[in-house]
Amino acid sequence: MSKSISPLQSARAAYKPKLPKVLAEHGSAVNASVGDPTESVGDQAEVKELFPNTYGLPVVNFDAPAQGKIGALKVGVILSGGQAPGGHNVIAGLYDGLNKIDSGSELFGFLGGPSGLIDNEYVKFDDELIGRFRNTGGFDIIGSGRTKLETEEQFDKVIENCKTLGITALVVIGGDDSNTNACMLAEYCLKKESGIQVIGCPKTIDGDLKNEWIEASFGFDTATKVYSELIGNIQRDANSAKKYWHFIKLMGRSASHIALECALKTHPNVTIISEEVAEKKKTLREIVTEIATIVKKRADAGKNFGIALIPEGLIEFVPEMKKLISELNDLLAENATYFDSLLDDDKFQFVNSKLGADTSHVFSSLPQSIQYQLLADRDPHGNVQVSRIETEKLLIDMVSDLLREWKVKGNFSGKFNALNHFFGYEGRCAAPSNFDADYCYSLGYTASALIGAGKTGYLSSVRNLTEPADQWIAGGIPLTMMMNLERRHGKDKPVIKKALVELHGKPFHEYAYNREAWALEDDYIYPGPIQYFGPSEVCDITTDTIQLEKK
Q1: CA angle 5–95–144, rounded 5-degree value
Q2: Does domain 24-219+432-488 have CATH number 3.40.50.720?
């Protein structure tokens, strides 16, 4: 870490995150009250068979001090997957919670994500190291990685390394895929009677790791505030210059939670919600026509400018594109070695010869740049990397072509000058908002309480998030509770189910009720930068999404 820090970093270092009342009063040595047995969100019989030792565990809540002394603990922690604001505070909360249980407890941070756990590369945390990273953004305290933990050979190496260090519990800070691996590791450790507990913490700015018990994944609040500030700045520029349409693609993988939250915060003229596209089976042409119609209506009113928000995963929700991507995923998974050996031109010929007639036609109709992106290297799960597909440029080109057609027919007389943007990495390592600083610290502290209570195969859960932090509810839910089967590398595999935007939910209804007015009026909101100091209603407020869901 750099020795030079900004005035804001210095001030943030003094911030004391808030905790749920039970943890603030009693520390992490707390009693775990349990509920009824649970079941997976889907494919119950198959998931139960795959996870016989961890399936059906009850939900846990902490409500009173524990009876008796727990003793010193040795725990390992990894940061897994993409960065999200607040990760450092999860580790700080875990560290403080373990030391609250017993001052002799030790926390080991494995470097570079899961690979550090396998290679036994680690650092032992102390007060000085933790102190330098409290309330800061990023994952640079120990780094992260995307190595998958899924083979018995890897699991055996993890157990061996932990036993060498005397570690009896591991905490995996990650998203749905990382916590799927945590669930598999917890099951294997029980099967082998290793004595090693495994606890997960819900991380992802995408917002797709959520349910009744996990109201938000950490980092979503901060990232959407960062993006909304930038969107507001661009809206101010557009409303000043009055000559550009800005097409902004927003990170978020498959789900449209980020796009929806930013729309609620800023009121842009166009926001596409991928889940609605899938529900209504909208074709790419229909999406383009809807955008072009708003461009025309605004131009007719003398407004040749506007803002359009495009979710990162849109392309895989368009019916004809979804079918194409599915066929490509299976085709390239089955022929990976041969496909990689081909030259570019031969790759296109091979794909067209193997695709069905309809999907081959769709593939051939796309600009070559998009074809290249669809055939690019797959992600670790064998799927198209949607963030590499420049959907915003594709839509600009197609809207421009349609408006030209309308102009020739005399149906459009305005101007369409468009600029493209992609907001992704700008929000992943921002200094956490007060909400994320508190929430992440509470998640880490709760993870230490789960370890102290002897739990394994659980995801740290902190709920009631629209209330002040002292009213938050700390506990844990079984990782198997979130599982279903999905197609990966051409095979059905157990994974934590992604939570998509709920079209019957209050956040989407709020957007749908207002979108027609937002399309034609300039009802822009300019959120400004994240505020850390000042009145609570400005500094501690959480996302519109959670507020509407709990309203």
Answers
A1: 65
A2: no
* CATH number of this structure's domain 222-323+366-428+505-550: 3.40.50.460
Alpha carbons 365 and 367: distance in angstroms, whole number: 7
**In this predicted model, what pLDDT tens digit does every residue of 508-532 receive, in sequence order?**
999 999 999 999 999 999 999 999 9
Residue 187: count of CB within 10 angstroms of its CB:
23
**pLDDT one-digit tens code per residue, 80-134:** 999 999 999 999 999 999 999 999 999 999 999 999 999 999 999 999 999 999 9
- In DSSP terms, 487 is beta-bridged to 492
Q: Which of 96, 176, 206, 540 is catalytic?
A: 206
Check: CB of residue 83 under 8 Å from CB of residue 429.
yes
Residue 359 CA to its chain's centroid (Å): 30
Count CB neighbours of 103 within 10 A: 8
User: Which token pair is 354?
Assistant: 């193997």
Strand segments, DSSP code E, in 30-151 are: 30-37, 58-65, 74-80, 106-110, 122-124, 144-145
Which pLDDT value is given to residue 382? 65
Return phi, psi of residue 216, to 5°: -160, 145
Say how far apart CA 418 and CA 424 lie, in whole Å.
20
Structure tokens at 346: 């031969």
> 281: which 2 tokens?
């089976």
CA distance 445 to 460: 9
Cβ-Cβ contacts under 8 Å for 275 (sequence gap 6 or more): 255, 256, 317, 500, 501, 502, 503
Residue written as tokens 């591991």?
A: 170
Q: Among 348, 461, 507, which Cα is nearest to 23's?
A: 461
- Tokens 């930013």 belong to 262
Q: Which residue has the tokens 């790791």?
A: 209
pTM of the prediction?
Answer: 0.94
Question: Is 206 a known active-site residue?
Answer: yes
Cα pseudo-dihedral 278, 282, 288, 291, rounded to 10: -70
- Tell me the two tokens of residue 443: 């998640």
CA 89, CA 364: separation in Å to the nearest integer? Answer: 48
Rg (CA), the chain: 24
- List CB contacts of 181: < 8 A, sequence separation 6 or more: 80, 114, 148, 149, 150, 172, 174
Q: How far apart are CA 149 and CA 161, in angstroms?
A: 14
Rounded-to-integer distance, Cα 527 and Cα 231, Å = 9
Vertex 506: Cα angle to 501 and 512 (nearest 5): 80
Q: How is the chain split into domains, by residue range? A: 24-219+432-488, 222-323+366-428+505-550
Q: How far apart are CA 31 and CA 62, in angstroms?
A: 6
| CA distance linking residue 233 with residue 116, whole number of Å | 40
CA proximity to 205, closest of 220, 194, 193, 190: 220
Same fold, 24-219+432-488 and 222-323+366-428+505-550: yes
> 81 near 174, Cβ under 8 Å?
yes
What would the 3-class secondary structure string for 244-273 be? CEEEEEECCCCCCHHHHHHHHHHCCCEECC
CA dist 482 and 484 (Å) reads 7
